[in-house]
Amino acid sequence: MKMTRRHWVQLMGAGAIAPLGVGAARALAQDHSKHAMPAEPPARPSKEGHDGRYTPVRTLNGWTLPYRMVDGVKEYHLVAEEVVHEFAPGCVAKCWGYNGTTPGPTIEAVEGDRLRIYVTNRLPEHTNIHWHGILLPSGMDGVGGVTQRNIQPGETYAYEFTLKQSGTHKYHPHADEMVQMAMGMMGMLIIHPKDGEPERIDRDYAVLLHNWALHPGTYRPDPSVMQDFDLWTFNSKVFPAIEPMVAATGDRVRVRVANLSMWNHPIHMHGVQFLVTGSDGGRWPKSLWRPEVTEIVGVGQTRDMEFVAVPGDWAFHCHMSHHTMNAMGHEIPNTMGVDQKGVEEEIRKILPGYMAMGKDGMAEHQDHTDSGHMRGPENTLPMMMGKGPFGNIEMGGMFTLIKVRDGLPADDYRDPGWFNHPPGTQPKRVSSDPNFGNPVRRGLPADASPKFETKPVDHSKMKHS
C-alpha cells in the first residue's frame, strides 16, 4: 500500500507530524551554513553563456547554459531527461528535467540575438518546449498538436527565432503538461536589453517557484495532486538547502521571480522597500515602477524586484505560512489546548514511541526532530529546519536569506556567514516576569477569563433528516 501524507497523518494523529525525517534533521540541524550553500560554492557567477554585454544572472543553486556561435546564431542544446534530484540532504527523488537538473539551466541572451535551440528527448514519452512569453513565429511556440508534432523519445528538434524583446521569461513543455511540469520540467529564459539597463544592475538573481507532491517514504513526485503539496521550492530546493542571495552594501540588486507552481505566491522581502520594475511583459517604464515589500507572483507570471542593498541578514520568503514548511499534515484534528497525556499512552500501545504534540503550539517541533526522539518516514524532511546564530530558524520550503555586507568584493557570491549586529541594534531581555509592567488591554487574558469546556454531544437524541 502506498502511504500518502494524508494516510500517514490520519493514522498517526497530529503528533505524527513532529518526527518526519529525523535522520535528515540530524544532518541539517548541526550547521546551517554548511547546508545553505554547496560544499564548494563558486566564488563568482558563471561566465558561461555570457557575451560581456550584461551582468550575468545567478540562478540560486542552478546554472546558465553555455552556447556556441554558428554563423551569427547562438546555439544551445537542451536535453529532456530523467534526473536524480536532491531537495535538501535527506530527501531525493527521480524527477524529470533538462541537462541533468531541475529546473533546467537558465538560458541568457540579448535582445536582437538569433537563437537556435536543439531539444533532444531522452524521456520515455514525447515532449516539446513552449517559450513562455516570447514573441516569435507561431510555429516556434511549442504547443503539441497545435504548432508542431511532438518530439518523440530519441528525437532532436531545433527551434530557431530572433529575440524581439527583453525581460524575464520561462520555458516548459506543452505536452502531457500535468505530468511533465509536476516532475520538474521547467527553466528560465532571460533576455537582456540590447541598449543596456536604464539603472545599473550589480547583482541579478533568478528564482523559479514550484511545488512537489513527494509523499512520505516515496521517491517519485505524484502528478495527480492539485494543491496539497509536500514541498514548496525555490529552484527546486527547500530551506535550508537554498543558497542565500549575497550583495555588497549599496549594490543595486534585481531578483527575478517566476512562478510555474500550482499556487500564487506573495513573495515578501525584509529590510527594504523594493521596486517592482518588470514582468513577463518586460521592463516597465519608470513611471510604472511601484514600491512594495510583498508582491504576489501569480501562476505563470514573472516579476522583477529591484532594491539598493542595506547591510544585514534579511529574510526572503513566500508569505503563505504553509509554503515555508516542509512535509506536514493539513486538515488534521486540532490539538491546540488539548491535554493529550491519556491519549498519548493509549496510542503508544499500538504505535510505540508516539509523541503527542500541539497542545501549546508547534514551536517544539524542530527541537524534537533535531534531537531524534522519533523517526519519521524515510526520504522525508522535517517540517521545520535550519540553525541560526540565535537558535532554530524553524523554516523550510520557500525561504532563504539576503546577506548584505560592507566592502564585499564585486561579483563575489560566497556566503559571508552571519551578520555582526552593531551594538544597540538588537532587542534585549528586560524581564522574565509574565506580569511585568502595566500594558494597556481591551480584554482579560485567557488565564484570567471565565473557564469554558466543550461537552460531548449525544447525537442519539437528535433528529437527523
Automatic annotation (TrEMBL):
Residues 450-465 have a biased composition (Basic and acidic residues). InterPro entries: Cu-oxidase-like_N (IPR011707), Cu-oxidase_C (IPR011706), Cu-oxidase_fam (IPR045087), Cu_oxidase_Cu_BS (IPR002355), Cupredoxin (IPR008972), TAT_signal (IPR006311). It comes from the Bacteria. Keywords: Copper, Metal-binding, Oxidoreductase. The keyword Ribonucleoprotein does not apply. CDD domains: CuRO_1_2dMco_1, CuRO_D2_2dMcoN_like. Gene3D superfamilies: Cupredoxins - blue copper proteins. Residues 92-195, 226-332 form the Plastocyanin-like domain. The keyword Metal-binding applies. Residues 29-54, 414-465 are annotated as: Disordered. PANTHER family: FI03373P-RELATED, MULTI-COPPER OXIDASE. This is Copper oxidase. It comes from Tahibacter amnicola.
